[in-house]
Write a structure and sequence with these properties.
Blueprint (H helix, E strand, L loop, with lengths): L5 E5 L2 E5 L1 H4 L31 E8 L6 E10 L2 E6 L21 E6 L9 E2 L6 E3 L4 E2 L6 E2 L12 E2 L7 E2 L16 E3 L5 E3 L4 H7 L6 E6 L4 E4 L1 E3 L9 E3 L4 E3 L22 E3 L11 E4 L8 E6 L9 E2 L14
Length: about 325
């Protein structure tokens, strides 16, 4: 976060803040250092892809920034898994500097019930890349971009945060811009759609049953999404739980034509990261094949990580209606 006052359009709304006025609730970095992983609980035998096919929730979220009912339903039919809901989080929302209030949405999406790992990474295509259990969207990227000749983080300085068409794609965390995210690494879009850019802390807190490896949602291609912890040995549910490490690394030097690092430090743009196979636990889509509590026989699955890409930016399966462009460089 920059020390100078920042007036910045967040996905179409205006947030005016400074270090003094925004405070710690406006996070420009990923979540803090994590607690020690819990002791793993071996998964139960016999679970199948039918996990999560019958789940209905309705409850009041009395958080001052929400104050309305959260509802969602997951169901399965034939070869598909479906979610319907209103996109209202079912956990507390106390921080953040949202451009618009949290508002109800009409969420209705369908995924493959028995996804197939194609082995080929494709861009996620149309957003979102998936949904959390509570029907809130996983939407890791931003609509912000900068021109190559951008000279300032201020409006008019060569960057926009909504419907950007310029080449340098702004990240929500770790760079020059502040997007007003809350303690759940989420904020709202202009229509009030609450969405996660990174680790959905409230989902983890609410769902933690002691297993440690927590199913937080489903990707658009139908594969499960887990938060933070996985088994140290992917094929062994009795192995220790460990924080999963992404294999994307911040580049040592900026790409040619990039706006000045003195104004936009490394990490500001999506292009500031590159995939380095083997440098972490996961593949280029933040996933791997292994056992999980819900799939004791093994399945390809994604993780939300503490570092870029946070939520995956590509898919290894096929979303209903097709895939998307190649994954980010």
């Amino acid at each position: 976060m920059r020390a100078n006052p920042l007036a910045w359009i967040v996905a179409g709304g205006l947030v005016a803040c400074s270090l003094a006025s925004c405070g710690a609730s406006d996070r420009s970095t990923a979540a803090p250092v994590e607690p020690a992983p819990p002791t793993p609980t071996p998964p139960a035998a016999g679970l199948t892809a039918a996990v999560g096919c019958t789940l209905t929730y309705s409850g009041m979220n009395s958080s001052p920034k929400v104050n309305t009912t959260s509802n969602y339903t997951w169901s399965c039919s034939g070869t598909t898994r479906s979610v319907s809901g209103n996109g209202i989080p079912d956990h507390p929302v106390t921080g953040g500097n949202f451009a618009t209030p949290v508002g109800k949405q009409v969420i209705a999406s369908t995924f493959p019930l028995n996804p197939v790992n194609t082995g080929t990474a494709v861009g996620a295509g149309m957003q979102p890349v998936g949904y959390a259990i509570n029907s809130v969207k996983f939407d890791p990227g931003t609509a912000g971009t900068c021109r190559s000749d951008a000279t300032s983080t201020l409006p008019g300085g060569g960057c926009v945060a909504a419907a950007g068409q310029d080449p340098w794609r702004i990240e929500a965390f770790g760079g020059a811009f502040t997007f007003g995210t809350d303690e759940n690494n989420a904020h709202t879009q202009p229509d009030g759609a609450y969405h996660y850019h990174a680790m959905p802390e409230g989902v983890l807190t609410k769902a933690n049953t002691g297993q440690g490896m927590i199913l937080v949602g489903w990707a658009a291609d139908g594969f499960p999404v887990y938060g933070r912890y996985g088994y140290a040995v992917a094929t062994n549910a009795a192995s220790a739980l460990t924080v999963m490490r992404a294999s994307w690394q911040k580049k040592a030097a900026p790409d040619a034509g990039r706006p000045a690092v003195s104004i936009f430090p490394m990490g500001t743009f999506q292009q500031d990261y590159s995939y380095v196979a083997g440098s972490g636990d996961l593949d280029e889509c933040n996933g791997r094949v292994g056992v999980t509590p819900e799939f004791p026989n093994g399945i390809y699955h994604y993780y939300i990580t503490q570092t870029f890409p946070y939520i995956q930016r590509c898919l290894k399966g096929t979303r209903l209606g097709g895939g998307g462009p190649p994954p980010p460089p």
